[in-house]
Amino acid sequence: MKKTVFAVLLATAAVLMTLAPLVAHHGAESFDTEKEITLKGTVTEWIWANPHCFLKFDAMDDTGTVRNWAVETQNPTDISVRGWRRTSFKAGDQVTVTLQPVKNGAPVGRLRKVVLANGETLGTTLPGAAPAPAQQPGR
Amino acid sequence: MANRFRLAIFAAVALTLAAVSFAQNLPWNNPGRAQNPNQQGGAAGPAPRRDLTGIWDAGGEGIGARGYPTSPLTPWGEEVSKTHKAGDGSRMVPVAEINDPLSIMADPAGFPRILLFELRPFQVVHTPNSVLMLYMFEKRWRVIWTDGRQLPKDPDPRWYGYSVGRWEDNYTFVVETVGMDERTWLDNSGNPHSHHLRVEERYHRVNQNTLELTVTIDDSKAYTKPWVPRNKLPLRLLPSGTDLMEMIPSASEAAAYRKVVAEPSR
Would the CB atoms of B23 and A49 count as touching at under 8 Å? Predict the structure, then answer.
């Protein structure tokens, strides 16, 4: 059964990866695409904008310091297909954010997925799919 | 094992269709991104004669135009391209260094970039003496004159150039465009062009629901020979009642991005 579930997810991901390529206006050069971190935090602002939406949230790091993170995701058109809405977040919401940080250590990154307080997950692939691969250079 | 594989494929297709079907049925703010060749839900009828009316969507293929080869740049083209610090492709630089006029300054995408990057759904409207193309991205429009006029000889540059169109046969509409502003890039990877650029678009109506777009770039000042970034790109006819989202790059939103994401990443 586990193998079947895995095969379903794998096949879904394969289908969706061909249908929904990740495209960014700003590329991935600033981000550490080999690294993903997960932070629990509190939303301070959700900006629904072109060419990228971005989520700002406060999260405590390993030293106990609270930093205000800004993580970009895709444009409203593309993430609305994935279940995101202008109303997905409000200030004060508790969230668990998985992101790729920028290389210079600033609290800035590229969002991979968010788990809301109610358990709902918003990701950068279509609903039901595995996480999308990192941005590929070469256009 | 074979049954498991078939089940996996079936479930994958079902999940995919479920994921995209809601978007296709939205009464307002449809994001487009047609994912299958037939958005109409029925068999495609024959192509109507000399008619491109409708809302056309290239889906994911329209957005990125990844991987097309350009012809070699001329020395002039090389010099110009060195000044283009792009967000993607071979000229990609860190986000704080990008100088893409579209994504950083929210300048117009211009033509033909609107066909080569972020080709989102667009509507074609016929009038007695022109064909109008209304683009979801930027909410721009182009007027393609079909009244027999000639292209201007030495036009003042325009973001979207000057276009004339003609029917090559009953199912193929050919558009020629000149007079594009050199400030625009051809695409997201910063390929340049000069004011000598001449673009040909060929829209071939395959059947009721499918159009194919081929784009040829001819710019002897920037490239050593013509090249074809879009070759029979399939466009799918969306339902006539499709209300499209706005997707407008604005200067204030671009500035916010620079402040919040780009500058801190230096």
Answer: no
- A75, A77, A87: best to mutate for the B interface, most B CBs within 10 A: A77
The identity of residue B105, as a single letter, is M
Average pLDDT of chain A, as a whole number = 79
Q: Hey, which residues does B238 pair with through a beta bridge?
A: B55
Whether the pLDDT of residue B46 is over 90: the answer is yes
- Write down the pLDDT at residue B3: 59
Shortest distance between the Cα of B154 and any Cα of chain A, in A, equals 32
Q: Which residue has the higher pLDDT, B130 or A26?
A: B130
Can you give the three-state secondary structure of B67-122, one letter per residue? CCCCCCECHHHHHHHHCCCECCHHHECCHHHCCCCCCCCCCCCCCCHHHHCCCCCE
Domains recognised in chain A with CATH numbers = 2-123 (2.40.50.140)
Q: Check pLDDT > 50 for residue A23.
A: no
Domain ranges of chain B: 1-29, 31-265
Q: Could you tell me which residue, B33 or A74, shows the higher pLDDT?
A: A74
User: What ipTM did this prediction achieve?
Assistant: 0.81
